[in-house]
Amino acid sequence: MQSQQTATQPQQMSSISPIELDDLDKQIINLIQLDFPLTVHPFETIAEQIGTTEDVVIAKLKRLKQEKAIRKIGPVINTRAVGGSNTLAAVKVPAKDVETAAAVISAYPEVSHNYLRNEEYNIWFTVSAATQERLDEVLSEIQNKLGCPVLNLPTIQQFKIQVKFKL
Question: Where does the Siroheme decarboxylase AsnC-like ligand binding domain lie (predicted)?
């Protein structure tokens, strides 16, 4: 498992069309959201829970990832609890430069994802780094590479909720 999420290009939500999920897809998604088995063979454990085989579970998850129903399977690290730093950031990019800017931002492994929004600051992204110094360095490099202002919106107080989508 990876500790970093894969960075993504900004997408408009309207460009994503729903995919068909069968009952087994739904069972797998429901199981892995909060209770992913921490075993040597987690997909075998999942298969046993829903009455199928490990190969079927792996094939289903590969398809769901290819069809973008899931982005990744991996831990969500509490960056601050392990001594790191994170922030929400936004950059003001001319419309003609959005794709290039998204690629620059996404090239940083510290950036987990970014979104295109119809606002003055139009690309929003999250950054998690091992230190505050590295986080500041990433934001500064992005601003310098793009030649556009970056807005840093650090967390003052976190109100964490746990989200599980029941399918």
Answer: 83-160
Whether the CB-CB separation of 43 and 58 falls below 8 Å is answered with yes
Mean pLDDT across 13-19:
66
Provide the CATH number for the domain formed by 80-154 in this structure: 3.30.70.3460
Q: pTM value? A: 0.67
C-alpha 55: how far from chain center:
26
For the domain spanning 1-11+22-76, the CATH number is 1.10.10.2890
- The whole-angstrom separation of Cα 68 and Cα 19 is 9
C-beta separation of 48 from 146 below 8 A:
no
Spatial contact of 32 and 165, defined as CB atoms under 8 Å apart: no
